Amino acid sequence: MSKSDVGLWCPTNCKPGEKLAIIVPYRNRDVHLRLFVKHMHEFLRRQQLMYTIFVINQEGTTKFNRALLMNVGFIESYRVAYFDCFIFHDVDLLPEDDRNIYRCSEQPRHLSVSIDKYNYQLIYEENFGGVIAVNRQQFEKVGGFSNSYYGWGGEDDDFYKRIIYYNYSIVRYPEEIARYIMLRHERDERNEPNQMRFELLESAESRFNTDGYWTSNYTVIKADSLYNGLIYWISVTV
């Protein structure tokens, strides 16, 4: 593998078909991040992919807004390259099987189908969270994620609604392939359950044209390649 100064990794013995941005929304999970970065570089290199791991860190005391951070990752990824495919990836999920290929397809793909915490079963058919893959065209067509969900819960279901509204279908690898280990953790501070999530979901469709990646409000505090290019770190306040 070779890498650029800004952390774009590329296999030297083949030419990948697309550039892959791994977008990781993050706050105060140092141990998980170290385990994640080591595991993912080994996993992605075995798949001979061209990729960058972006860690989008939320600073300050505002409640965690995971979806907004994923929008930030999409917007700010230009700092490294023009990416074709975006994998939105929770920091506590580690893929187990190399057949779980990290690439985009004609339809949005749910990658984290079966997780050890849930006995390796899909917890509900509309689940579209954890680890997902969408290409640039798909993300832009649905408007990205809603920025309205502060705290835990709701943003993945909102994104699912957008996917279906714009006539996409969710595709998945078989459960025996799309397997993940979830790193154990307590509920994060300032990531309490969002008491408004059900109300927001009820009215989600009315905001599809007014609430998306283009309305993301944030300030970049730091953006730089860290740890010899292992990650591209973007710190923001929201």
Can you walk me through this structure?
Helices cover 22% and strands 25% of the residues. The chain has 238 residues and is an alpha/beta fold. The chain has a single domain, classed as Spore Coat Polysaccharide Biosynthesis Protein SpsA, Chain A (Alpha-Beta Complex), CATH 3.90.550.10. It starts with a strand and ends with a strand. The relative contact order is 0.21. This is Beta-1,4-galactosyltransferase.
Question: Keywords, please?
Answer:
single chain, 238 residues, eight-stranded mixed β-sheet, alpha/beta, three-stranded mixed β-sheet, Spore Coat Polysaccharide Biosynthesis Protein SpsA, Chain A, 25% strand
Query: How would you spell out the order of helices and strands?
Result: EEEHEHEEEEEHHEEHEE
Can you tell me the CATH topology?
A: Spore Coat Polysaccharide Biosynthesis Protein SpsA, Chain A
Number of domains: 1
- Identify the overall geometry: globular
- The CATH class is identified as Alpha Beta
> How helical, in percent, are the residues?
10-25%
Mean pLDDT: 94
Number of helical segments with 4 or more residues: 5
Please summarize the sheet with the most strands. 8 strands, mixed
- What name goes with the CATH superfamily? Spore Coat Polysaccharide Biosynthesis Protein SpsA, Chain A
Radius of gyration from the alpha-carbon trace, in angstroms: 17 Å
Low-confidence stretches: none
From the 3D coordinates, which CATH architecture would you assign?
Alpha-Beta Complex
Number of strands: 13
Strand order of the largest sheet: 10-7-9-5-3-4-13-12
Identify the quaternary structure here: single chain
- Into which percentage range does the β-strand content fall? 15-25%
Helix and strand composition category: alpha/beta
Family: Belongs to the glycosyltransferase 7 family.
Membrane topology: Single-pass type II membrane protein
Organism: Schistosoma mansoni
GO molecular function, one term: N-acetyl-beta-glucosaminyl-derivative 4-beta-N-acetylgalactosaminyltransferase activity
